[in-house]
């Protein structure tokens, strides 16, 4: 194991970093991007200071990777279509809408020109219901008074 650490040089870190960035192009997770950028940063550091031990290189890589990943997750959170849809659905809590159809126990309610899935008790087509909660992108409704 010591032999692996002692033979590390800047080129190993550069290849690792570029490989991780290239893999990231196919995965679309953004996580490997920060790890790859950390490896490239370590390669630059150890190009400038080649006498650093392999264990120290590994420690610095781990510290940079953890801190960069933490900062990226804090300041650049990944937003997905599901998150945006869920936030839009939550903005309708408290509104009243009409049940347009019920098929296989799943109701569809209309808000504006959009149809949304809804769950609730004792729902009938044409009934006016109030949105009380959101579960994923499905409204939880109750009959309006």
What does this entry look like structurally?
Helix 2 runs antiparallel to helix 3 (31-48). Strands 1-2-3-5-4 form a 5-stranded mixed barrel. Strand 1 (96-103) and strand 2 (106-111) form a beta hairpin. 50% of the residues lie in helices and 23% in strands. It has helices at residues 2-6, 10-27, 31-48, 54-75, 81-90, and strands at residues 96-103, 106-111, 114-119, 128-135, 138-143. The protein folds into 2 domains: 2-75, no CATH class; 86-143, OB fold (Dihydrolipoamide Acetyltransferase, E2P) (Beta Barrel). It is built from 5 helices and 5 strands. The longest helix is centred in the middle third of the chain and has 22 residues, at 54-75. The protein is α+β, with helices and mostly antiparallel strands.
Quick synopsis:
This protein is α+β, with helices and mostly antiparallel strands and 145 residues long. The protein has helices at 2-6, 10-27, 31-48, 54-75, 81-90, and strands at 96-103, 106-111, 114-119, 128-135, 138-143. A 5-stranded mixed barrel has the order 1-2-3-5-4.
Could you give the topology of this structure?
Elements: H1 2-6, H2 10-27, H3 31-48, H4 54-75, H5 81-90, E1 96-103, E2 106-111, E3 114-119, E4 128-135, E5 138-143
Parallel strand pairs: 3-5
Antiparallel strand pairs: 1-2, 1-4, 2-3, 4-5
Helix pairs in contact: 2-3, 3-4
